[in-house]
Amino acid sequence: MKIKKGDLVQVITGKDKGKQGKVIKAMPREDRVLVEGVNRVKKHTKAGQTARGSQTGGIVTTEAPVHVSNVQLVVEADGKKVVTRVGYRFDDEGNKIRVAKRTGEDI
């Protein structure tokens, strides 16, 4: 998977199209990513009590994962943020390095 935790991405399809956010969690086995502030859902949690006796539960708003094909990496070029595809190259020691296809610079 070409998107990693901590990357800045932009949603390219769906109800949150155009929104940008940081990747909180990458799930390569499911081909999904969790993006900050994107695909917010309301989750109903069961009411319970903590050790101190306060009430917990109710309706909690949280992020749900989105498919990695629906997001694109954002890089900065000439002071502007642009979306780009990700490629790879190998350096002299044989290390794999991610490269922004649109700008040609290393990520």
From TrEMBL:
One GO BP annotation of this record: translation
PROSITE patterns: RIBOSOMAL_L24
Keyword RNA-binding carried by entry: yes
SUPFAM superfamilies documented for this protein: Translation proteins SH3-like domain
Keyword Ribonucleoprotein: yes
This protein's UniProt keywords: Ribonucleoprotein, Ribosomal protein, RNA-binding, rRNA-binding
Gene Ontology molecular functions: rRNA binding; structural constituent of ribosome
Top-rank taxon: Bacteria
KOW domain mapped to chain residues: 2-29
GO CC terms: ribonucleoprotein complex; ribosome
Family that this chain belongs to: Belongs to the universal ribosomal protein uL24 family.
Summary of subunit composition and partner proteins: Part of the 50S ribosomal subunit.
Function per UniProt: One of two assembly initiator proteins, it binds directly to the 5'-end of the 23S rRNA, where it nucleates assembly of the 50S subunit.
NCBIfam families with a match to the protein in the record: rplX_bact
Listed name of the protein: Large ribosomal subunit protein uL24
Gene: rplX
